[in-house]
Design a protein that fits this description.
The chain is α+β, with helices and mostly antiparallel strands and 301 residues long. It has helices at residues 2-9, 42-51, 66-76, 86-92, 95-104, 144-153, 218-231, 266-270, 274-283; strands at 17-21, 32-36, 55-56, 80-81, 125-129, 139-141, 160-164, 169-178, 181-196, 202-211, 237-246, 249-256, 297-300.
Length: 301
């Protein structure tokens, strides 16, 4: 994602700086790059990089409050943030809080419980970290009793939320939001692998996406994206929305207030520079969006 964003930004009239772990190769498409060594205080490195920038585009997961902390750091230096506000980051960082926000807004979503409020019933159930990203540590049990035992035995009852398994096609919406409005960039089919493990449950793994693989749902996805933007008006910049399509029904699973993997193929999928579109949306009132192509591009992780 970082390299794709740097590539797109390199075509625009900006001077670009970033940071990189010393164990990794230096990225292309940037003018300066601060290398983070093993003994460095990475937060000091990030703060120094932000202090000399005019605008900051954060690429970080919500897990462990990282995106929130980086956003607060950029705000403390009064920088233009090309991304979401703190309120929406705090809500979407929690699957439980996201569920309540979507439910309050009348948006179809999956019932979500914490262990102490979960009524054990027959059915197939998922457990996932409340603040996890993607399919990280997501498991599926065909027996509710076995899930309850797993949550207790592995000390997950306090960190995981519980959801009923929702049949359908996993998909995602890549979009740009600002001031309560949304513009869809692409409609993607998610490639999810389900495999057995040795704990008598199934593990879900994210294996990539078919960017624009769900274009037939463009109108429906656009309606949902705008409902979410209205419900959380400080969602801004690139936002990814995970959904499940079950026949004519589109159910929201979670909201990602930052770049998602699908961004990697966006430039090719829409034949436009997505970074330019996002920046123009955030910096120009009533920006007139161009017509986007809907090429289907596969990403494998």
């Amino acid at each position: 994602m970082r390299d794709a964003l740097l590539r797109d930004l390199s075509h625009l009239p900006y001077r670009i700086s970033t940071t990189v772990d010393a164990r990794l190769a230096l990225p292309n498409y940037c003018h300066t790059c601060a290398v983070v060594e093993a003994n460095d205080d990475v937060w000091q490195v990030w703060e120094q990089a932000m202090s000399v920038a005019d605008a900051v585009w954060l690429i970080a997961p919500e897990t462990n409050g990282l995106l929130k902390k980086l956003t607060e750091l950029a705000m403390s230096h009064h920088k233009k943030i090309l991304g979401c506000g703190l309120q929406s980051i705090e809500i979407t960082a929690s699957k439980l809080a996201t569920y309540f926000a979507l439910k309050q807004a009348g948006i179809d979503t999956i019932p979500t419980f914490i262990f102490k409020n979960w009524k054990i019933e027959v059915g197939v159930w998922l457990a996932k970290p409340d603040d996890g990203a993607g399919c990280d540590s997501t498991v599926c049990f065909e027996s509710a009793d076995e899930m309850a035992g797993w949550l207790s035995s592995y000390n997950k009852a306090g960190s995981h939320v519980i959801q009923p398994f929702q049949a359908g096609t996993p998909a995602s919406i890549s979009c740009v939001m600002y001031h309560g409005k949304a513009q869809v960039l692409s409609c993607n089919k998610q490639l999810i692998e389900i495999k057995n493990n040795q704990l008598r449950c199934f593990e879900l793994s994210y294996r990539g996406s078919l960017v624009n693989g769900m274009c037939e749902y463009w109108a429906e996805f656009e309606i949902i994206a705008n409902k979410i933007a209205q419900a959380m008006p400080d969602l801004a910049g690139y936002v990814g929305v995970d959904v499940i399509v079950d026949g004519d029904e589109v159910i929201v699973v979670e909201i990602n207030p930052r770049l998602t993997t699908s961004y990697v193929a966006l430039a090719q999928a829409i034949s436009k520079n997505p970074a330019e579109l996002i920046i123009n949306t955030l910096t120009h009132d009533n920006f007139n969006w161009p017509k986007l192509e809907r090429n289907v591009i596969e990403i494998n992780v």
